[in-house]
Design a protein that fits this description.
Number of domains: 2
Bound molecules: zinc ion
Strand content: 35-45%
Largest sheet: 12 strands, mixed
Helix content: 10-25%
Distance between the termini: 98 Å
Number of helices: 6
Shape: elongated
Order of helices and strands: EEEEHEEEEEHHEEHEEHEEEH
Structural class: alpha+beta
Amino acid sequence: MADSMIVYKCPCCGADIQYAAGTDKLKCMYCDNEYEISTLQGYEEGLSQQKPENFSWKTYDERSGNGDWSEGELSSLKSFKCSHCGGEIIGDGSTMASTCPYCDNPVVMNEAVEGVLRPDFVIPFKVDRSKVEKAYANFIKGKPLLPKSFRSENRIQNIKGIYVPFWLFDANSTGDAHYKGTKVKHWSDSKYIYTKTEHYSIVRAGVMSFEKVPVDGSTKMDDALMESLEPFHYDEAVDFSTAYLAGFFADRYDVDVAHSIDRANARIKNSTDEVLKSTVKGYMKVVNENVNVQINEGEIRYALMPVWVCNTEYKGENYMFAVNGQTGKTVGNLPIDKMKKLLFGAAAMAVSFAAVFSFITFLL
Ligand SMILES: [Zn+2]
Ligand SMILES: [Zn+2]
């Protein structure tokens, strides 16, 4: 009778195996593996005992971390919203931007700052302007196809120091993972070649501590660019004070905590899986069955990271040069002047003609 049957899942191929009363061994019709019933029961019990995934984070608001702005702090700051690209920048009242750091369009910085959370940490700028200017000079050196406007003195003055907003996630996580592993042996005698494949159900669990898992809080700073500027050394982060803003700007976050949590969860889950999986050794193949992570009451902090940037709009495209303000790591892209490219190509052709010509001359 159908309803007296118990159906197990084949641990090797996932197909249904039906158990009929009176049998002590079960065979999968699809992959031909045979199992003791106790093995299948133990396997299913193990899977069902896994705790459901749970990521819980404490709410982050103006009372979290180092708390809210103190009196006078906010009124000493000014901001602007760029009408061209939508970028929102904050600076201390004495540092005036004349152009938007993101799109190079003229701006006036005169709005009051409101509705912004106070950062908990800041990584101060360690790389000073003169070093960044040298780095830019090196960056454009030996690039004959670069348009003239990128070489002007004015370009170098346009490099700005910006603090980029980051959400940092601290948590103790419990991870448990189930993997499937296979070991394969081959041997032969005079008549046959034999292959023996052994299947293993592998269970791993552990507690891990994550500190300052970063998620970029700004869409204005390109994610790929920020990742290529990483790493930042978070151990050098200090408590925020508006004094760190003197001479620099701060990008106002436009990705809020709620929208950053998923990325933090994914990073934590990946790392948990990597660490647990690194202890699974000696198998020919290991496949993830499921990895569950539980985080209880993780803490979120808001921090500012130092970046020097120079954005230049050229023929409708934006080009960026950026330096990690803590480590000096430099990244950027530059345009090619098409007219110069033609001339450069013609010159290269002339050289190769000359080379061929002299080669022929030599043979004669
Ligand atoms: Zn099977
Ligand atoms: Zn702009």
